[in-house]
Amino acid sequence: MTPADIARMAREALEREVLLTPKPGLVDAANAGAHRDMDKDTFLRSAAALEPWFRVLAETGEQLAGQEPAIVLPHLRPIGLKAERDMYAATGGVNTHKGALFSLGLLCAASGRLSAGKQPLTAESLCAVCGAMTAGITQRELHDRDTHGRMAHADYGAKGVRGEAESGFASVRRLALPYLAEENGPYLALLSLITHVRDTNVLHRAGEEGLRWLQGRAKAILEDFSISELERLDRECIERNISPGGSADLLALAFFLEAASQ
After folding, report:
1. Deepest of 152, 224, 225, 239, by most Cβ within 10 A of its Cβ?
2. Is-contact 127 169, C-beta < 8 A?
3. Distance CA 59, CA 64 (A)
4. Is 239 helix (H, G, I), strand (E, B) or coil?
5. Is 113 in a helix, a strand, or coil?
6. What are phi and psi of 72, to 5 degrees?
7. Quick one: angle between helices 98-116 and 123-133, nearest 10?
């Protein structure tokens, strides 16, 4: 698979996530969820701006395929910062995909690495490479309070996107991917993630009480799914100013892994 193919899949995964409608408290094709500074078009512009950088990240993974995974991450970070600047330029300063950029950037680099070695791209192989590239990252980097994710770790012990990466995106593999092949699969995958993941976006906005409420509501809909109940939960999340953005990012990763494995 070429770096251009990998980058296209990453962009399409982001587009597929934002266009999935309805979603609870999240930006989708129907509304802006619990957000006031972004909408569907903001996310689509962001995804388009990031695609060239996803290609660079895949190329970097390809170029460093002969190196130990642990040395790759420092090479990816400067690229990610440049990508982030282009994201902000495309969105007028709105953070649409900062967390997803980190995670999808790792997967793009892992895809380039495996493709260079003529190895098959599977959810397991890609996530194993990501886990190896980020080994020890939570212990090294979750001490400051300069992002919502780091504040959620300090206040609630949540490991956020770094913990997901270090685990080899275990939540995506175990909670989301198995649902995608089912009827209403993307909705069920998102609800499964919301039910089980300690979403740092929710913790930042609503604390432990808000997270428990949302997880209980998501679990009930997951067990007896209907679009009307999902739309109701969307309205409730908007009223409570809750947006499970971390779970939405993980859903985008599931879409990428599903496409890469085909």
Report:
1. 152
2. yes
3. 9
4. helix
5. helix
6. -75, -40
7. 110
